[in-house]
Task: structure prediction
Amino acid sequence: MTMIETVRQRQKNSTDFASCYDNLCALQNSCPLGSITANLDELFIDCNADRIRLSDWIPILNALKINRSLKFVALRSFWQETLYPDGEVSEQRLQALRRKAPAIRSKDVTYRVCRTIKECLYVTESLNSLIFQGIPLRERDLNYLAKGISKNTTLQHFSLEFCQIGDSGVEIICNAIKNNTSVMSVNFTGCSLTWKGADTLAKVIKHQATRRHSVAWQDSLRYRHPDLDRMPGLRRITICKNPLINDRGAELIAEALKDDLWVKALDMQQCGITTEGAISFQPVLKFNSTITVLDLRLNPLIEREVLGSLMEQLMINTGESELEYPWLVIREPKPGRTRPRKRGGTFKRKTGAMEQLGGRGVSRNASVLSKKSSAGFVPWRTAARVGKNRHKLRKQGAQEGVSLKKVKTTVSRKPRATSSPLATEEDEKTSIRTTVTESSVDNREKLKDMQFEMEMMKRRLEGESRARATADSRILELEVENRRLQQEIRLLKTQQMLPPSKSIPVNGGLLRTGFVVPTKKEGAKTILEDDRVLESIEASFRQFHDFLDLLKGSRFSELAHVLGENKPFPEHDKELSPIKEESTDSVVR
Result:
């Protein structure tokens, strides 16, 4: 009985991740993480792996290993973005950062995670998206992932964004994706790829194209019209932020896409492509009309005219239909913190030590703060909240500062009751010191104001650049629409120049002509206005009448009567009857 209960419990755990995860956390006396259980109602996990400790990984991996119901799994790490905030890092700081590194950065944890994902891919029945972001994956980890992908039939989207796997890692993954028919989109953004990695992707495109061509040929024999959208395989490839791909990698991918009819989107932002590499895609878009997205933005070495021609051809290929795969949104990087925050304990220790020393440092800091506040100083956080009224606050602060300076100067000018010339020298020195400190405070305030204005100008420039980009895209759309309308106008003009044919009665018969003489009401210019054309028509009619006269005087009508044909000219039978009688008499004689 116990064995049956354990089997039932295992089957329940495979379909209910939440209950399985709760039970495993209860066994090791730990609490389930909110980042894991937040989205389990929608059957997906999207968490920051940097915040998961080593002990918390055990129940997560054990529950994920046997799960069959999850549809979306994403493990993200942002630790490498804050590793070098200042650009230059000393060795001591590097060692300290390595000691504080999260558990997901270790080889052991990544090995366990990839092995668990492999077993989940073996048994899952609904997992369609798998995302690794910013996690360092080694060759051993990628081999486990490749084994799981090669035997899976439900995975549709696979992403290794900023995982730094290199060309060798892409080759391992591509060997698994090459024969997998379920994967439709891959993302290798920021994976340190070169033109060799682009070559491996081009080989995958060619391999799947040959296999699909054979399937399409079989469908054409059965159903005459093969459904290309029904055939499985890669549809979107994203390899942004790999500047070492350059023109050589772009040319290799373009050569592979010439004979492909299934890849619909290719994203190559910040790939070091120049005008030469972009030109290699022009013949591809002319022959391959299935590509609806070719993203070559953020490549500053591409000329604007070439990029505009590519966008125009893409708009012609897509037409008015909706895009199945949308364009990527360009997200600007957020300004990171240059200095880490200090903990409250260290600040309290410093303030306590200054208080023990007699309060000199505290009084000095307080005096500086009082000077800044009196001179109209506004912190950057409050300035951002104020918005439009920040100029009024600056003016008020400046006026208050001027009034305070006047008061200080009047106070310093008051004479003191002194009996020696040394006292006057000391007063002069103190007045010089006060003026120097006031000038330094003013310079600092001016510098802060300039920095604030510079930040505002940068934001305005960013907004104008975005508006300009949208205006350029709108101009391209209008140019394409204008060309289409011009083509329609030309077709309408040609239809007006060549009206439908009519028949003209000639000698009892009907003569069809390919033109119609326009009336004065139509007012359209036709070919019949040319005198040469009219003369040629008259000459043809004359020759036709001469031919009829020749038939009247000859014996070809008898031959036509013998052959059983109808009389071509019934109105002239009486005239031809004496000719027939003469011919019969001659035959009798």
In short: The first helix runs from residue 2 to 15. The chain is about 60% helix and 5% strand. The two ends are 128 Å apart (CA to CA). The CA atoms of residues 174 and 201 lie 7 Å apart.
